[in-house]
Amino acid sequence: MLLLLWEKWFGRSSPSVSIDSPGETLEQTVIAAQQGDAQARDDLIRQYQPFIAKTVSRFCKRYIDPSRDDEFSIALSAFDEAIARYSPDAGSRFLGFAEKVIVRRLIDYVRKDQRHRLAVPYSALQGDDEDQGSLLTRVEIREAVTVYEKERLAEDRRDEIAALTEALKLYGVSFGDLAIQSPKHQDSRETLLGIGRRLAANAALFETLRQKRQLPVKELCEAEKVSRKTIERHRKYLIAVALIADGGYPFLRDYIGLSQSGKEGER
C-alpha cells in the first residue's frame, strides 16, 4: 500500500520498502567512537568482523579469508571509514551505511585492479578455453558491479522513504494523506515543489515548521503571494516537500525533481 501511495504522490514508481533496523545501542556506540572513544572503535571493528567478511563474500561471490585476501583488508578499512563518517541524521542505520561504504570501496578496488583488463577486444573472443574462462570472469565482474550499483541505489531510496515516513509522523502526516493531497497536474506539482523548496530555504519559516510542527500558513501565503486556500489544501504535501528539500534526503530530492530547478530559494 505504501508503494502505491508513493507512486500516486509523485507520479512515479518506487522500489519496495524493507528495512533492517539494528538496535539503538549500536548507533550510540558509533557516536562514542566518533567522539574519541578508542575502545568503542576497537570493539566495533572486532565485533563486526563477521559482518564485514560476510559483506565481502557476498560481493565477491566466494569465501573470503580475512588473513589472506586483500578484499577483506579493504573492507576493514572501509568499515573504519564508515564509523568516522556515519551520521544518524542521514536517515539510515549504521550497518546499512557501513555496507554501502564497504561495497563502494570494493567497487573502486575492482575497477582499479581490472581497469586495463576490463576492456574486451573482439579478438579476445577467439582465444582458447582458458582465455575464454578468464574473459567470462572479467565480463561477469563488470556486469556484477553494474547490477550491484543499481541495487544499492534502490536500497538508498528505500532507506530514505522509511526515514521520511518516521519523520512525517511527527507532523501527523501519513503517505495516505499525501496521496489524497497530491496535485493532479504536472504544472501544479511543480508549483508546489517550488513553494516547498523555498520554505525549506527560508530559515525563519522552516524553523517555525520544525519547532511548532505546523505549517506557517499566513507567512507562507504572504511570501509566496498565493491564497490561503491553496496552502491549506496542500498543507501536508508542502510539509513533506519541505522536509525533503531541507537536505536530509538527497536521493529523494533528486527523485522528485527538487535538484533540477537551480539554486535553493530561486523563483
Arithmetic mean of pLDDT = 77
Order of helices and strands: HHHHHHHHHHHHHH
The main sheet comes to: none
Which descriptor suits the 3D outline? elongated
First and last CA, distance:
35 Å
What's the Cα radius of gyration?
A: 23 Å
Helix/strand/pairing class, anyone?
mainly alpha
**How many helices?**
14
Helix content: over 70%
Give the number of domains: 2
Unreliable stretches (pLDDT < 50, length at least 5) are 1-5, 12-24, 116-136, 261-267
Strand content: under 5%
Number of E strands: 0
Protein name: RNA polymerase sigma factor SigI
Keywords: Cytoplasm, DNA-binding, Sigma factor, Stress response, Transcription, Transcription regulation
Motif (Polymerase core binding): 70-83
Subunit structure: Interacts with RsgI.
Short description:
The protein has helices at residues 2-10, 24-34, 38-47, 49-60, 70-85, 94-118, 129-169, 175-181, 186-201, 203-212, 217-224, 228-233, 235-248, 250-256. It is an all-alpha fold and 267 residues long.
